[in-house]
Amino acid sequence: MENFNLIISNIERHISLTDEQKTDFQSLVFERIYHKGQLLLRAGETCTNFAFVDKGCVKSYLIDEKGFEHILTIAVRDWWIADIRSYVTGTPGNLWIEAIENTKAIVLSRHNQEILFRKHPDFERYFRILTERGFAVSQQRIVERMSLSAEERFEKFIHQYPALLHQLSHQQIASYIDVTPSFFSRMLKKRKLK
After folding, report:
1. What range(s) does the Cyclic nucleotide-binding domain occupy (predicted)?
2. What topology does CATH give the domain 2-121?
């Protein structure tokens, strides 16, 4: 029970759970440890699991034709992560999902999610809320990439992920804010001079 306190708290921010619902949910998920650099998903695989970050940090990213990594999502403690399109459609995805640091995740398979929905329809509401919020965040990131300067995107990153500023490499931060590592270095030097 103790291993699931954070995820149960996360769920209960959106729906009320009975003891039976908590027990059934816990019977359908499993804990998984990922080491730094370990992949949760490879591009081309079908995403069959939704992972809740209990401890650690995970990223999802694309690799372009030149081999450059473009980070779409950074999931920190108390966040869910998956290749949603692949998870929902059951088709191969195009995202890589990787642990940025040693991570403990609570994993729910698509199959077990369907069992959960049939037995406890309230969970559909919870996952609908997650999906809506995830879509809103993704849409906002697209708008920001189109309308904010690199410096403004970096300021937003600092505000959103202050703890990650020293945990992530400069290359990972550059990828997340959608600039090259060399541009990011120049940007940092310019900030220090101010």
Report:
1. 16-110
2. Jelly Rolls (2.60.120)
DSSP one-letter string for 76-116 = ETT-EE--HHHHHHTSB---EEEESS-EEEEEEEHHHHHHH
Whole-prediction pTM: 0.88
Question: What is the pairing mode between strands 39-41 and 49-55?
Answer: unpaired
Yes or no: say if 6 and 76 are a contact pair by the CB < 8 Å rule.
no
pLDDT by residue for the chain (194 residues), tens only, comes to 468 999 999 999 999 999 999 999 999 999 999 999 999 999 999 999 999 999 999 999 999 998 888 999 999 999 999 999 999 999 999 999 999 999 999 999 999 999 999 999 999 999 999 999 988 988 988 898 889 988 889 888 888 888 888 888 888 888 889 888 888 888 888 877 66
- Which tokens belong to 62? 């694309």
- Tokens for 73, please give them: 């999502």
Domain positions in the chain are 2-121
User: Token pair of 139, please?
Assistant: 């849409």
